[in-house]
Amino acid sequence: MDSQSDTKITTEAAVRAPSSVPVDDAVLPFEVAELDLRGRLTRLGPVLDDILTKHDYPTPVGKLLGEAIVLATLLGSALKFDGRFILQTQTDGPVSFLIVDFQSPGRLRAYARYDAKRLKDGQDSGTLLGKGHLAMTIDQGADMSRYQGLVALDGGSLEDAAHEYFLRSEQIPTRVRLAVGEEWRGGDGSGPKHRWRAGGMLLQFLPKAPERARQPDLHPGDAPDGAVTHSVTEDDAWVEGQSLIGTVEDVELIDPDLSGERLLYRLFHERGVRVFAPLPLRAQCSCSRDAVSAMLKSFAPKDRAEMVKDDKVVVTCEFCSSVYQFTPHEAGVEE
Ligand SMILES: [Zn+2]
Asked: What is the dihedral sign for C-alpha 57, 62, 68, 72?
């Protein structure tokens, strides 16, 4: 972290006022030291629009994939090494599969698979996903171990799933907010132009004394009737943190005219909030003609032969919709 660009904003001794300039496509890390809170705020504009419009998704699918992109950005931006954070869902709902690939320090790509016939008005994220699981993988490269966390999805939202993941796997008190919206702005006279926007916030309670971070169990599960369940009183600082993030409205997270710093100041100014250097994000796929060619060569000769249509092999990247064309010879198909 570049300490030169750290800025402490407190009521008593503000180094400077919160900037009113909105910054899109970035992650803004912050700290509320008085409450032992750390967090990250993200705003996504052109990056999100670029990923979603390449696919021309129906609105509910775009919105759900947008939420997944915000969540993966909030989690992946914590990586301190070269690596990737991959968020995937596999479920029985109208959106049966989605994947977000976050490559450090800030490269994003994503896509979703869905059944257009099962889409109906008014379906929320939980209904669109249905039942199945959410997998989060941290991949640090070929020689390193992969870490995977799994959470069951059972009709709840991605926010719910993230909370369960942190409670069960990481055991760090965490709250997450995700919001995706559509913006219509006047274009060049040809009518309003549609754009996707999103925002999100992650807040974690990281006290020095670990016993302060104890959390109540989700539910007693299949404990026998009458079993004593542990009642854990949450730390006052974390109770306050949760109640503050609980006041954040979707419109504040996606408002193109409200800067991230102003939003953080609005929430935490009574305690003092310090922001760190923002991390820029970009939409970029990692596919290439060479990589696709190598993938083709890994198939069995018979499978390669079956891919030839009209004397060529055409491969479309599911992430970015790039089309790669090969002659049968280039694709390694024997005459
Ligand atoms: Zn691609």
From this structure: positive
pTM for this prediction: 0.89
- Ligand 1 centroid distance, CA of 201 (Å): 28
pLDDT tens-place string over residues 168-193 = 887 899 999 999 999 888 766 777 78
Angle between the N-to-C axes of helices 260-268 and 236-245, in degrees from 0 to 180, rounded to the nearest 10 = 140
Q: How far is the CA of 108 from the centre of ligand 1 (A)?
A: 11
Q: Has residue 215 got a pLDDT over 90?
A: no
Q: Has residue 4 got a pLDDT over 50?
A: no
Query: Which conformational region is residue 64 in: left (phi greater than 0), alpha (psi within -120 to 50 degrees), or beta?
Result: alpha
In the reported structure, the alpha carbon of residue 130 is separated from the centroid of ligand 1 by a whole-number distance in angstroms of: 27
- Cα of 89 vs centre of ligand 1, distance in Å, is 19
Give Cα separations from 315 to 101, 112, 305, 320 (angstroms): 20, 17, 14, 12
301 token code pair: 């000769």
Output the pLDDT for position 148.
Answer: 85
Q: How far is the CA of 286 from the centre of ligand 1 (A)?
A: 6
Which pLDDT belongs to residue 232? 77
Q: Which residues pair with 114 in a beta bridge?
A: 95
- Distance between Cα 164 and ligand 1 center (Å): 32
Query: What's the CA-to-centroid distance between 111 and ligand 1, angstroms?
Result: 10
Return phi, psi of residue 109, to 5°.
-150, 155
On average, the pLDDT of the chain sits at 89
For ligand 1, the distance from its centroid to the CA atom of residue 254, given in whole angstroms, is 27
Ligand 1 centroid vs 262 CA: distance in angstroms? 36
